[in-house]
Amino acid sequence: MNGNKKFIDTNLIIYYLELNEDFYPQIKDIFKKAEEGRIKLITSSLSYMEALIPVVKADDIILKAKYNYLFKGFEGLQVLDIDMEVAYIGAVIKAKYGIKTPDALQVGCAIRAGCDEFLTADTRLGIIKDINVTVIRPLGEVI
Predict the structure, then answer these.
(1) 114 located within any domain
(2) What distance in Å separates the CA atoms of residue 8 and residue 77, rounded to the nearest whole number?
(3) Is the pTM of this model over 0.85?
(4) What is the CATH number of the domain that holds 40?
(5) How many helices (H) and strands (E) does the chain have?
(6) Which of 46, 50, 64, 106 has its Cβ near the most Cβ atoms within 10 Å?
(7) DSSP label at 60?
(8) Are 39 and 33 in contact (CB under 8 A)?
């Protein structure tokens, strides 16, 4: 599966699980490929936290169960912890590009995991040159 490790950013996970009409059509195939074992999706425990904040706040039991399944039971997704090495790489990325700390940690996690691609909807991360960043745009957006 070498060459098929994709880091998936929090925003795309949220858009997928919550069936966001502007992004779901572009990202559903990514999760399908992961489900079929054709690619391996990687994310961090930070994504779990970020995705759950509004769910916990709204006390949405059904959506919480969906997130728990995706992060804990979906075999196509590997969730990595933020360790000291990831924190160091994140510090280097933050110093180099001036991005927000959570974004730098996500990129650090992707680099540490050996991902060949970082998938996100955050256009600000397109400046990163240390990993191949693919920015997924909303449906119908004209560039």
Answers:
(1) yes
(2) 9
(3) yes
(4) 3.40.50.1010
(5) 6, 5
(6) 106
(7) -
(8) yes
Angle at 109 between CA 104 and CA 113, to 5 degrees: 150
Torsion on CA atoms 47, 122, 36, 38, rounded to nearest 10: -110
Q: What is the dihedral of CA 130, 132, 138, 141, to 10 degrees?
A: 90
**Digits of tens for pLDDT over the chain (143 positions)?**
456 999 999 999 999 999 999 999 999 999 999 999 999 999 999 999 999 999 999 999 999 999 999 999 999 999 999 999 999 999 999 999 999 999 999 999 999 999 999 999 999 999 999 999 999 999 876 55
Length of the chain: 143
H helix or E strand, kind and range, residue 12? helix 10-17
Alpha helices in 24-83 (DSSP H): 24-35, 45-58, 61-73
Domain count, the chain: 1
CA–CA distances in Å: residue 5 to residues 1, 61, 66, 113 = 7, 31, 23, 8
- Residue 99 is classified by DSSP as -
Q: pLDDT per residue over 104-136, tens digit each?
A: 999 999 999 999 999 999 999 999 999 999 999
- Report residue 9 CA to chain centroid gap: 2
